[in-house]
Amino acid sequence: MAEGPVEKGIARGNLPPLELYVPEPKYRPGDVVDYSHLPVPPAGLLARPDETCPASETWPLTLDMVRVLDDDDHAVGAWNPGLDPETLRRMLRTMALTRAFDDRLYRSQRQGKTSFYMKCTGEEAISVACAMALAGDDMVFPSYRQQGILISRGYPLVDMVNQIYSNRADPLKGRQLPIMYSAKDYGFFSISGNLATQFPQAVGWAMASAIKGDTRIATAFIGEGSSAEGDFHAAMTFAAVYNAPVVLHVVNNQWAISSFSGFAGAERTTFAARATGYGIAGLRVDGNDALAVYAAMEWAANRARANQGPTLIEHFTYRAEGHSTSDDPSAYRSAQEREEWPLGDPIMRLKKHLIALGEWSEEQQEAMDRELVEQVKVATKEAEKNGILGHGMHHPFHTMFEDVFEELPWHLEEQAAQAMRERGIKWPEWKERDDA
Amino acid sequence: MPEETISKDNPLTDTGAGAPGRQMNMIEAINDALDIMMARDPDIVILGEDVGYFGGVFRATAGLQKKFGRNRVFDAPINECGIIGAAVGMAAYGLRPVPEIQFADYIYPGLDQLVSEAARMRYRSAGEFTSPITIRSPFGGGIFGGQTHSQSPEAMFTHVAGLKTIIPATPHDAKGLLIAAIEDNDPVMFFEPKRIYNGPFGGDYDKPSRTWKGHPGGEVPEGYYKIPLGKARIVREGEALTVLCYGTMVHVAEAVLADKGVDAEIIDLRSLVPLDIETVEKSVQKTGKCLVIHEATRTSGFGAELVTLVQERCFYHLEAPVERVTGFDTPYPHSLEWAYFPGPVRIGEAVDRLMKD
């Protein structure tokens, strides 16, 4: 044993100096993209363990990839959920509607009708297929890119647009950033702008359902980037400890604003593999394969409902657009990535599958797309009657002070009066509309 | 340590050492400060979400990774606890980290590392370990950021023993204060008012926005200079009323008082902790009236501290109750952002009350 304080920086023979490793994505703007290094296993090869199996039986699946749609557009293998054509068409339609909605509302933001928008282009299968595999009364704790779930559950498009425009018909009273929806009647939890917070909350909801002897389960979504937050690990620990009836999804779309998945640990192992360390079931899925997503969600939901506990599902996908309307991905990644993405486009893949089944055609697809564009247009026009952001048609001023608490304390009543007085001073002609 | 280069008499325009000025916005000034300090001190490292190749979502670290390498400027996982905790560890080794928290609204997962660790490290180890960390973070509203991109949480940090809290109001000050913060041997919260990154803002959201061009605060000296922490800036000398403010509200106060033709003494505090109490006292004792303005919520805001200090130290000089203009005690709303913001009307009413006799 050495005596006294340690000696620092002592020479260690010919050992090289330590080096800091900082991950760097393979491709930057202008680079030629080649994804041949990405392992994309053939569809249909993986076994589907029984839903009540020990968690450890799923662990090989966390390092592989559940895929159902093969290169010839057929649904193959044990994970094929065997959906009927009517259900497949409904799935396709909902995904296409989600994309049409995104395209139009993105343009609305560019036209100055609101402050912000976030598309989910390329990730439609994850939201829509998960929503369809869940029961309607199961509780969803979404991130900000699961608009497909709301649309799938039949939430009125016009109310989504009202929220996005922060207008006088906005169900959230103009308080939240656009797309931070909340829809309790549709089993859709209030979206937070702070990342990963919904993960432990979903576990808590599931624990409550178990405490009460309910049959409903909870599910939550985060991006791979925010799986780095402590909340992710809090959720995993609680889910494991209490065997919570919850399905936790990591949507691995490769990019968190400008940070590639390596900054969340993707260079070391898969996100699904995190399940192993916690001793819970895990699955890794081709996130652009709607049938694989459906099958994984269905498997995990059945497992949770059978009191067999939580599952972590990684959806391997690609964020085809910018993080949001405030982001310009051409500044940090190669534009070619999207074109070269080896798992294709989820809508195109499902369309081709239906055509291969003889249950759909290009003509039907085109007609449907036209119809959906019109459906979204009608909803936005209807919403615009209630106002767009910054043009005075917002909820009454007093609503700004409501819901801070159940009841307004004296200081908020005083502040509400102050806000009204200020309004009168700045705009003497102004009167609060009472039809808002 | 180089001498302080800003004279107390004319802190805004005297940039010291005859250094030529250059027109910059606040982002460019911050970037310049980081660039200069990285070159001067090899122990400075920058980490944060998107700060590396991309250069930060507000571009404050643009070009720094390319210039100083990935060993010194690097992206971090989305984990504020990790960012601040790692900074504490790097500081324990002897580095001088300058982490960025992308929005002040996102800092809360890092609070334990900040409040229980960084802030107390010097104290609990009797000076063995210190945390010379400067945490940069954009804060404040006025950009339709909704409740998670608009908050002004500075009072939470001024309440923590062991943290310094700095808020610049001009590009000139942002550079000089950031350099001083980085050189400071204690943890410093450096909140950047993002509404005025690109130009001063007089509070009228319905008027066209301005750039820093032509504003004296947009003239930024070349090279190294620092503005000592704990020294306020007298924006405008006056006899009728003392206005205490910081960040975006400095410019709103200036515009409102000019509009009203009140001979106010406007003080940009620049540093909340440590506070330049001498400048505050001297001014209030001279004018006998005091208005405190901040954008943050009212209850337990930093204004409460300022009002208390003024009445403790200037009570017998006061000719009117001290007034406090703030944001409301609600989350920052999206559509009614401008009804929340303590703009010209709210400030004007308070000035009228103070000046009525």
TrEMBL record, chain A:
Domain 2-oxoisovalerate dehydrogenase E1 alpha subunit N-terminal intervals: 16-55
Top class in the EC scheme: oxidoreductase
Keywords assigned: Oxidoreductase, Thiamine pyrophosphate
Enzymatic reactions: N(6)-[(R)-lipoyl]-L-lysyl-[protein] + 3-methyl-2-oxobutanoate + H(+) = N(6)-[(R)-S(8)-2-methylpropanoyldihydrolipoyl]-L-lysyl-[protein] + CO2
Enzyme nomenclature, EC number: 1.2.4.4
Domain Dehydrogenase E1 component: 93-388
Record family assignment: Belongs to the BCKDHA family.
Name of this protein: 2-oxoisovalerate dehydrogenase subunit alpha
Annotated source species: Novosphingobium barchaimii LL02
